[in-house]
Amino acid sequence: MPVVRDLRVLLRLRNFRRLLAVRILSQSADGVYQVALAAHVVFAPEKQASAGAIASAMAVLLLPYSLIGPFAGVLLDRWPRRQVFLYGNLLRSALACCTALLILGAAPVWLFYASALCVTAVNRFVLAGLSAVLPRVVDRKHLVLANSLSPTAGTLAATAGGGLAFVVRLLLADSDAVVVLLGAALYLASALATLSLASGLLGPDRDVGRVPLRAALATAADGLLDGLRHLAEHRSASRALTAMTVIRFCYGALTVMVLMLCRYAWTDNEDDGLALLGMAVVVSGAGFFAAAVLTPWAAARLGRFRWMVVCAGAAAVLEPALGLWFAPAPMLVAAFVLGLVTQGAKIATDTVVQTAVDDVYRGRAFSFYDVLYNVAFVAAAAAAALILPPDGRSAALVIGVAVLYAATALYLAHWSRGGDVL
After folding, report:
1. How many CA atoms lie within 13 A of 221 on its CB side?
2. Number of Cβ atoms within 10 Å of the Cβ of 213
3. What is the pLDDT of residue 64?
4. How far, in Å, CA of 165 to CA of 35, rounded?
5. What domains lie within the chain, and their CATH numbers?
6. Nearest residue to 295 via CA among 309, 307, 305
7. pLDDT digit string (tens) for 283-304?
8. Is the pLDDT of residue 155 over 90?
9. Which residue spans within 50-184 are E strands per DSSP?
């Protein structure tokens, strides 16, 4: 198969393999850490988490990225990106250790959230940077395949990390701190893997010398406006980002619904609910893998926008057909389908942005992308908190999300007519 042949070519690229190792280790640590947080905040026996409480936790952990993200992009276009990966993962490892100590010490909730916020805030630099530097290690003709393999491998690594965290927590009672320390070890391993990459390989291209932090932040506003204008001038990138933001909103709303169903509707105890949530995460991860296999073939034949139309359209039809049962088996099938269509659309969006945006703006572009991703997810959690009943069953939410998927498919179909298929 051509995809298998191209994949072999891609994996022969030494620097791509090394960058992929950094991503896999980093995102597996993310998966471990996020499951530890979810278990501690939502599934702890002494907590009665509501949809509003879940939304509040997501807002605390994700909304500040809206402030950090754009500035991260400016700095990614100034700082050596390899050093960002190295020191970012070292810092996250140290901060995760602090989170584990806070769990053991029964620290106040606000202090726990502050520690978790610091860990995940650094993630904005690392993930935006990993997407921005991919064209530095892969030639243009293999970029779609690289966008299928690399981010999807990272997502699967996060899923595997989450699965490992579920196993550790189920085997060891009251082991949230141990799970967090496991995440800290993986962050450290990612930092060490970064040292295998040459210091100047990942850019950025523009040689601005050593820019002091204060000077970089002083010019951040101008840089952000310049980067936003650059995105606006490239309509293919801005259209893909708009569609992907809506798709992310839909995925976020359904994630909160599944959390509530696992916690209150489908099981009688917290451990069984956590196990069901873990199964949903694994099944969704299988959908991500299927998207990685299918997207290069589909995007090559349909074009990236038309493939996104297929993804959004399929979700619009299948999500209510499976979700309105509010039963575990059809919802797990829905998790696979939504994992496939969400990741398929993301792969196409990543490639559109990478190919449409100049390298010198790429860090800012992916930071904006990251901000949209997080704001959409938090907004979805807030909307779900207003709609969902205590047990998580809401036909209104399921149907509303289907309407948004359908509207996105129609929006993309409009632009894919007339040859704008990229």
Report:
1. 1
2. 10
3. 64
4. 6
5. 8-201+227-419 (1.20.1250.20)
6. 307
7. 988 898 899 889 989 998 988 9
8. no
9. none
Question: What is the number of other CB atoms lying within 10 angstroms of the CB of residue 230?
Answer: 18
Cα–Cα distance list, 380 to 87, 100, 247, 390 (Å): 32, 29, 10, 17
Average pLDDT taken over every residue of the chain: 83
Task: Tell which residue, 60, 61, 84, has the closest CA to residue 71.
Answer: 84
Q: Which residues make Cβ contacts (< 8 Å) with residue 84, sequence separation at least 6?
A: 75, 76, 125, 126, 129
Q: How many CB atoms lie within 10 A of CB 45?
A: 9
Six-digit token pair at 215? 């000077």
pTM over 0.85: no
3-state helix, strand, coil in the chain (%, to 5): 85, 0, 15
What angle do helix axes 65-76 and 81-104 make, rounded to 10 degrees? 150
Give the integer Cα–Cα distance in Å for 406 and 315. 8
- pLDDT at residue 420, as a whole number: 46
Instruction: Catalogue the long-range contacts made by 370-373 (C-beta closer than 8 Å, 24 or more residues apart).
Output: 370/65, 370/69, 370/72, 370/124, 370/127, 370/128, 371/65, 371/66, 371/69, 371/70, 372/241, 372/244, 372/245, 372/248, 373/244, 373/245, 373/248
